[in-house]
Amino acid sequence: MESLVPVAFKAFVALHIAFGSVGLVAFWVPVIGRKGGVAHKRWGKVFTWTMLATGTAAIGISACTLIDPLATHPHLVGAGATWIRGIFGWMMQGLAILTINLAWYGWQTVRHKADRAPQREWRNLALQALLVAASVNCILQAWLADLPLMLGMPAIGLATVGTNLWFLYRAHPGPLDWLKEHLKALVGAGISVYTAFFAFGAVRTFPELALHPGLWAIPLVVGLSIIIHQRLAVARMPASRRPAHAADAPSRA
Q1: N or C: which end of the chain has fewer CB within 10 A?
Q2: What distance in Å separates the CA atoms of residue 159 and residue 83, rounded to the nearest whole number?
């Protein structure tokens, strides 16, 4: 049974790279292109589904790491099983769930827009609970392994759940809050996948840089800049260009 773990690990890594590579490219089409156009919608769907697949593969990677950390990461044996389990097991599991959460939530906001009732479906709510559990577990594992670097993931995870639930259950959201949440979620998923690309992907090529805070900061700074820019653009959007359903948002809550 144990001999199959490295084989499964390599299969999950291959799937993770295949779907993640498509997602890395697809991310920029909706961000840069004309909003609401055919290309925006088509590539937005591609990005969403590749993020769901990438996150699922990452959960498989983290599970294999937790089962047999030394066999799945022989190049990091010197770091020890506890360190590998913490960073590439528990933290990667949390980031994977965060990516799935953001991709699904962002897709639901644009599918149903101002109508939040269908957005409160069981999968969307279950992903909020799952992300809370993964975030709390990551805090616990960071304390047990004395790895403060792991605390970044639960901080983002809990903030994500808080803002998601705030929108889903707020009494009277603004008419374009759904669009702001859509932008936050899918750009957030992009930050997550680029973080994994820079950090976890670099561990084999430049292991000394893989977990350097500066490397992690690149996708975070770029992603937050995109979110701020897009939210300001939404705020400045003239009434004539706003989606027709935006005006009746409060009444459809």
Answers
A1: N
A2: 25
d(CA 171, CA 167): 9
- Helix 4-26 with 177-199: angle, nearest 10 deg: 130
Confidence band of 45 (pLDDT split at 50, 70, 90): very high
User: Would you call 210 helix, strand, or coil by DSSP?
Assistant: coil
Distance CA 225, CA 213 (A): 18
Token couple for 135 = 């975030």
Report the residue count for the chain: 253
| 114 burial type by CB count under 10 A (0-12 exposed, 13-18 middle, 19+ buried) | buried
Q: What's the domain range around 118? A: 4-252
Beta-carbon contacts of 117 under 8 Å, excluding residues fewer than 6 positions away, are 253
Mean pLDDT of 77-103: 92
**Long-range contacts, stretch 166-172, CB < 8 angstroms, 24+ apart:** 167/109, 167/116, 168/116, 168/119, 168/120, 168/124, 169/120, 170/253, 171/253, 172/250, 172/253
